[in-house]
Amino acid sequence: MTRLHFAFALLPSGWANDVQVVVVDGAIASVTAGVAPSAGDERHQMAVPGLASLHSHAFQRGMAGLAELRGDTTDTFWTWRETMYRFALTMTPDDVAAVATLLYVEMLERGFTRVGEFHYLHHDRDGAPYANLAEMAVRIAEAASASGIGLTLLPSFYAHSTFGGAAPHAGQRRFICPVDQFAALMAASREAIRDLPGANIGIAPHSLRAVAPDELAAIIPLAGADPIHIHAAEQVREVEDCSAWSGRRPVQWLLDHAPVDQRWCLIHATHMTEQEVTALARSGAVAGLCPVTEASLGDGIFSAREFLAAGGRFGIGTDSNVLVGVADELRQLEYGQRLKHRERNVLSGRPGTSTGRALFDQALAGGAQALAQTKAGLAPGARADIVGLDTAHPSLAGRSGDAVLDGWLFATGSDAIDCVWAGGDKVVAGGRHRLSDKAREQFNASVRRLVA
Q1: Catalytic residue among 95, 299, 319, 361
Q2: Each residue of 191-220: b (16+ CB within 10 Å) or e?
Q3: Which of 119, 268, 393, 433 is catalytic?
Q4: Which tens digits make up the pLDDT trace of 216-225?
Q5: Model pTM?
């Protein structure tokens, strides 16, 4: 049992003073406000819940910054994708473990306490399956275990290069599974996370361009009540190609032909019509927004104001992991809306509301739903995922309540984080993860070899 005492904490009911949190077996056993610290309490100033990065491709952390050289043609998502394929083809299981471990360490240092790993790097470099079909999933689980981050593993089904069941090309060979093999991969992946505390699993049909309709229908039952994540409408070309193939835009096709409900998370959903925005909001699905990656890849800007006005739910992800941080994603989300609408505080919701608080609350609830976490926040029964903020930081000094969130999200970043508990385990202290030096050393050794 661990007893923590915070001078201030953000609870589901709002901010509270003098909060004692009791942790038993990785979960919050009790939360009591208005009590003085007792002799056995570990004392801190300010606590907020950890957030989920609901969409991550861990291996891409290894190539961050390597695709910033303009080629002979217009540089787009599609040219970036070729660089990603080349990098993916070089990685060994040891490389994936080293890269994922550092990434998850960085996530924890920067306020993320759970990750939804959209995992599609399945096979050996020649495309042949490993002896253990889930070898790469095992390495992701090892990285989560070493770092302490909560893991929702989302094995991805990938079969085609584009719409209409086109054959995959050579650069995709490590991703490709027929339906029967994917079912076996799912079983092996469940085994890979079986002993990992707090871990769960879902499925991730990659996208409509990579999954044919009959294949989508065949794999959805593998999810049961677990999460279903899919990329949708990230790029204008994707929307155009989907319309040419089916007569429907990607989001509309999914709403018309798939059982989209609260289990589903549509990643990006950047390019939607007004009707799609409203229909997706009404479906109960979560929009998985990755604002830093969407800006990096030139995807476009999500219709966030309209989606929220229609009652939509969103969470945030780090996707390509080119830059990792709760503050970075939420700030980029709001700033994109400010640039689009030429207004300020676009996503605050109503007059007098803190934009930081509105963004934080939405991302907390949406991330928990998308990763099938039945409890979210600092509440009994929830996983003890807690972020302690440094109230001595210049951008937090003298502030209280929602002003602290505004200071963290809009005027600082990871340097405002002091301590992080993941599943009740204190993995970050003084802003540094206990594995930081070792993880960086192993990452650097792998990446130096890969880029050489």
Answers
A1: 319
A2: ebbeebbbbbbbbbbbbbbbbbeebbebbb
A3: 268
A4: 999 999 999 9
A5: 0.97
